[in-house]
Each structure stands twice: as C-alpha cells, then as structure tokens.
Give the backbone structure.
Amino acid sequence: MTMIGDKLQQVQARIVTACTACGRDPQSVHLLAVSKTFPAESVREAASAGQLAFGENYVQEGVAKIEALEDLRARLQWHCIGPLQSNKTRTVAEHFDWVHSIDRLKIAERLSEQRPAHLQPLQVCLQVNVDGGINKSGVDAKDALTLAQAVAEMPRLRLRGLMAIPEPAPDFEQQRELFLRAAAVFEELRAAGLGVDTLSLGMSADLEAAIAAGSTMVRIGTAIFGGRPPAAAR
Ligand SMILES: *Cc1c(COP(=O)(O)O)cnc(C)c1O
C-alpha cells in the first residue's frame, strides 16, 4: 500500500465513522481528493488506489495536470473548486467536468456558452456565502435561489447543488452550525423543485461536522496528500 493509498483509506474510514455517528449511509457521501499544489504523479498514485474524482483551485495548474494525465482522462473526474474570473471560464468549460464555485450570473452564462458541444453539460454547484463575510466569495444565501433558478435553465450547464467554505470554527458544534446554514439553502432549492443532489461541504479539519449537517461531497486535500506550503510561499 502506498502512502497516498493509506491516507485515502484513513479518510474513507473517517467518512464511514462520521456517517455511522449520525445515522447516514456512507455511500451517500462522495470523496473529492483536492490535489492543488501536488504534482500529477500524486494524482496518478491516488488513481491507482481507486480514487477517481479530483479537485483543483487554480485553473492553469489544474489544466496542466489534466493534460499530463491524458491517458487517464476517461476515468477521472476533474472538479474546479477555486474562485473563477471571467477570463478563465473558457479554459474551465473546455477541460473540467464540474465547477463548484459559481457565484454570479455572468460566470454561469459564460461557462454555458463556452462549454463545447461534444462534451456532456458541465456539472455545477453554486458557492454560497453562509457567514456573511463581505470579502468572501459566494452568492449571499438570500440570493441563492434566484441564481439557482437561472442556472438551471442554462443549456450547457447542469445544476447539481451548492458548495460552501465557512470560516474555520473552533469546535464541532460551531462548525456544524455554519454548515447547517448551507444545508438550509439546499433545502430551499429542493423545495422550489430544483432537482439538486450535491451539497459540497467539509474539508480535512471539519468533514465530520459537514457530514452531520448533510454534506454529500467532502473536499479533502491535506489528509490525503499532506501539508501544503502557505499560499504566499507558492
Ligand atoms: C484547499 C481546499 C480544500 C481542501 O482543504 P484541506 O484542508 O487541505 O482538506 C477544499 N476545498 C477548497 C475550496 C479548497 O480550496
């Protein structure tokens, strides 16, 4: 067993334990391995251990890895989880399978227009801002339904759900309380008849609280690939 293979097993075990603790089916939580800052060879190692869904924050870095692993392209699923600027939407629409970070109409419109016809529709989540931080990306919770209804109509996008990244909270209960705000918006979308199935919540430090709040996809980097240098040092 390789080191990354070991770590993947440990994370899967955490997911099972967290599901058991709150009476959920472990199959209802998908694991997205966040490979940002790690080389294509680490992704290859994870893929040979059976992990097929990968998340990247930085568009150019992600595309370089997608191209380096072209031989695995049909098996892998690539998720763009970082903030998106207008000038990057074409690259994302041409290379990724999923986007978690749609926070405004214009970005969604561009992705839909730019998604190539030979690919299946881009699978998308809206990023929702649940703690009101003005500098944080994400649509305000009160505006999420309106944006979701517009995105659901776009021909080359398929709306799958919501993603949120709350501020780090010191303990389980406070983490869960923030995640529950995202879960409430998700329920609002479902109640409005949008067929959403994905609630992308939880990272290495707080996946248990996210699962307790209803997460269906945890995005895990550090616990699989190890620590990253601080952003400023990259
Ligand atoms: C880096 C990142 C993750 C993974 O974080 P870890 O704490 O390393 O598990 C998840 N989601 C997003 C949006 C990220 O940028």
Summary: Residues 3-225 form a domain with the TIM Barrel fold (CATH 3.20.20.10). Strands lie at 30-34, 53-56, 77-80, 98-102, 122-129, 139-140, 157-163, 198-200, 217-220. The mean pLDDT is 96. The pocket of pyridoxal-5'-phosphate is lined by residues 34, 36, 57, 81, 165, 203-205, 219-223 (CB under 6 Å).
